[in-house]
Amino acid sequence: MKKTKEIISQENKFLRLCGDNYRDKIKKKIPMTVGDFKKFMYLFDAMGLSKYSIYFSMEMFPELLVEYGERSKDCDWDGYGEYDFPVEEMVSICEEWLQEFCDQMPLESQRKKYRKVYEIDEE
Taking a C-beta distance cutoff of 8 angstroms, is the pair 15, 23 a contact? Predict the structure, then answer.
């Protein structure tokens, strides 16, 4: 997959919002876990970065995409192709990921803007 201008633009947008820990994982300076990968994929989706999400998963971290897929096979399914997982619990986890993402942003102006966008209460 070729890294298009749109992918580069989406990547730069995301990287501008990342603190050192997030950026170091993306740049492979520190190891990324499957849990980190899942969180990043959720954040890309929440931010509308679909092109970068595909590039990230297929070109940058294909081994984690495979591992994530393997782990997903082991999950309990409800017979309709959905996880048998409490929705409230998943919503809570996603809210925590958004909160953590906002908290790690390097600039206070970014943190304020995205807390408002994602309706995260100021602490």
Answer: yes
**Count of CB atoms within 10 A of residue 34's CB?**
17
Query: From CA 27, how far away is CA 1, in angstroms rounded?
Result: 18
Which parts of the chain fold into alpha helices (H)?
5-16, 20-26, 34-47, 50-55, 62-73, 87-104, 108-117
Report the amino acid identity of residue 90: M
Q: Give the model confidence (pLDDT) of 6-53 as tens digits.
A: 999 999 999 999 999 999 999 999 999 999 999 999 999 999 999 999
The whole-angstrom separation of Cα 68 and Cα 64 is: 6
CA distance 123 to 121: 6
Identify whether the C-beta of residue 15 lies closer than 8 Å to the C-beta of residue 56: no
Q: Residue 90: helix, strand or coil by DSSP? A: helix
Number of CB atoms found within 10 A of residue 94's CB: 16
3-state DSSP assignment of residue 64: helix
